Structure prediction request, 139 residues.
Amino acid sequence: MLEDYTGSYSFRLGDRDYMRLKDKLEVQRFVIMKIKFTQGKDGRVFVNVNDVLELKEAFDRFAKSLSIVVPLESLRKTDIEFFREKLIQNQGEQKLNFFIKNPEDQSVLEVVSMQHHININENLLEVIHQINNYEVFLN
Prediction:
């Protein structure tokens, strides 16, 4: 059974597909699946699973930039120092954008880092989420 936020879909894998993908398919494991649907002349739907990616693999292959939304009222010097330290520790090839949000009028100021690029990885995202003060988006 494949399940997401919109619903669920049950299908069976063929022997060959199951043997090829069994290491990546486990209960409660979050993955990205590349699937091709085809419909037979009799109306039956066939599912071909082309690839299964773990979320870690998806960072490397698909994440082009990281956007961080920082509320204006909570922006402090310690936040700037925190981001500077984490950026130096996680230098890489992916773009970094900051959005400073003013809650009074919901306006947003976009700040794009031209000098610094980062390596989007699980550790960096975990550290940012631990602070629990920022919205984070992968693009």
About this structure: Helices lie at 15-21, 55-62, 77-89, 122-131. The mean pLDDT is 84.
